[in-house]
Amino acid sequence: MADFDAAPDIDLEHLGVHRSVSTVFPPEELIETLEDLPVTVSLVEDEDHNDTDCEAIVTFEHREWFADLEWVHSVQAGVDRFPMDVFEREGVVLTNSTGIHDRTVGETVAGYLLAFSRRLHRHVANQQRREWTQPDWDEAFTLPGTTACVVGTGTLGQGVAEVAGSLGVSVRGVRRTPEDVPGFDDIYTTDALLEAVSGVDFVVSTLPLTDETRGLLDAAVFEAMDEDAYVVNVGRGPVVDEAALIDALEANKVAGAALDVFETEPLSSDSPLWAMDEVIVTPHSAAFTVDYYRDIAGLVRENVRRLEAGEAFTNRVV
């Protein structure tokens, strides 16, 4: 097993930037930002990977040939797409981008909450139909006095708590252990999840995908929620049982949902979620920001510095 407290044994001369990062920013922007590093930094395409001599790569997606490298950096916090067992067996160091998405995801979630409370999503939909339709007198509300249950109190959850809390939302958190976390008014443990989601206005998942979290938000959770509460998922799609959520929405057991991630992406065009009035669908973009590449550059730059100094990597996963 790798010693995360020790410096990785990597002789780094060439750092590649995989074309797949173009999903979130132009790879050229990252390459230019890192051009002052004491190593070569260049774009790597799939078709010419056999000709590249890079020892490390920054990437959005996984490729089988990454197992031949020494270091892989994921531009996302989630790493469920990478084969941990293969990387560990082959001695590949995997780092992720935990810690940079707190504010962006927090503001996205705040946007969802404001859309639901001020009925903005309905106004946008009505605009597309050129319909002048005002909400019923008792539809709109303000956020102060509402409560959100954030399932997952890591970087993303703390970002949600900070931004939503500044809008007057009381925030309770759900985590494996009962220790207090800054920004949360109350903490519940995972085995008290049904109690935690009861009596709140919003249930927000910021969880990564693991064997333990897959399908965690299921029919029992939706049954325990109030009928006027909303589901928000900005973590990983399979954490929410999508079929159970659709059933709950169709049966009016929950008021609506804002979903940035899904069990299968892109979301199928025949999914009923697209047509539901009280569902907001966004294309896995909660963390997008013009500064994304700068944030990634900061993490990569720090680990290159640590490598030169003989120090342990930050954000090491494998």
Automatic annotation (TrEMBL):
Domain named D-isomer specific 2-hydroxyacid dehydrogenase catalytic: residues: 26-317
Tell me which stretches of the chain form a coiled coil.
Answer: none
Q: Which InterPro entries match?
A: D-isomer_2_OHA_DH_cat_dom (IPR006139), D-isomer_DH_NAD-bd (IPR006140), Dhydh_Halo (IPR054891), NAD(P)-bd_dom_sf (IPR036291)
Record Pfam families: 2-Hacid_dh, 2-Hacid_dh_C
Domain D-isomer specific 2-hydroxyacid dehydrogenase NAD-binding, which positions? 111-286
- UniProt KW keywords: NAD, Oxidoreductase
Q: Which GO terms describe its molecular function?
A: NAD binding; oxidoreductase activity, acting on the CH-OH group of donors, NAD or NADP as acceptor
What superkingdom does the record give? Answer: Archaea
Q: Which family does it belong to?
A: Belongs to the D-isomer specific 2-hydroxyacid dehydrogenase family.
Q: What is this protein called?
A: D-2-hydroxyacid dehydrogenase
Species name: Natronosalvus rutilus
